[in-house]
């Protein structure tokens, strides 16, 4: 069965965004981009909530064509165009987005059907609302967290929908020169 891995930047106190969705506290640099790129290039499916998908769709399809496009912009733009995308949304119309499936109802059944198919892990990027929905159905198999060296004090918490204890197994860690620390966990279902 394919696994769903939540990829998320998080503050030290557990928030994924400020109270109004602010993400200006997230540290991103070439070292982090290169590390993340190695992992996501192994993936063939990305999962987004509607808000994050809108942000991605407004930037990545043409990012490589910009005159000042970085190496990361070029590489990620190609990956984004090729990867199969799943969007959780009750409001997004079934529009003509390339390589995109929109799930608006029967979340658990729809996701489990996709998980039964062939392919690599499904990477859930950002998308706090989508993450919370999947947590509510116990559909997340791992957390790939990038802990930023900041305490927000308030905002959108990552583990808002967790209603019961969930055991995790640490797979790997890495510290970056920016002060960001990667924590890679899988859910221990035993």
From TrEMBL:
State any single GO MF term.
5-amino-6-(5-phosphoribosylamino)uracil reductase activity
What positions does the domain Bacterial bifunctional deaminase-reductase C-terminal occupy? 2-180
User: What's an example GO BP annotation here?
Assistant: riboflavin biosynthetic process
- Protein name as catalogued: Dihydrofolate reductase
Per the UniProt record, the lineage of the source organism begins with: Bacteria, Pseudomonadati, Bacteroidota, Flavobacteriia, Flavobacteriales
Pfam families named in the record: RibD_C
């Amino acid at each position: 069965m394919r696994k769903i891995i939540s990829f998320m930047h998080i503050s030290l106190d557990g928030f994924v965004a400020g109270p109004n969705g602010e993400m200006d506290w997230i540290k991103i640099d070439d070292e982090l981009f290169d590390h993340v790129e190695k992992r996501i290039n192994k993936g063939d499916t990305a999962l987004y909530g509607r808000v994050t998908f809108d942000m991605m769709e407004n930037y990545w399809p043409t990012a490589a064509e910009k005159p000042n496009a970085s190496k990361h912009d070029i590489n990620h733009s190609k990956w984004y165009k090729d990867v199969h995308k799943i969007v959780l949304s009750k409001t997004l119309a079934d529009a003509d987005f390339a390589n995109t499936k929109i799930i608006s109802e029967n979340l658990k059944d729809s996701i489990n059907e996709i998980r039964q198919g062939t392919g690599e892990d499904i990477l859930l990027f950002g998308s706090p609302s989508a993450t919370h929905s999947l947590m509510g159905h116990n559909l997340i198999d791992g957390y790939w967290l990038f802990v930023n060296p900041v305490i927000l004090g308030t905002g959108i918490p990552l583990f808002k929908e967790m209603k019961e204890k969930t055991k995790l197994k640490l797979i790997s860690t890495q510290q970056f020169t920016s002060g960001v620390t990667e924590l890679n966990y899988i859910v221990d279902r035993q």
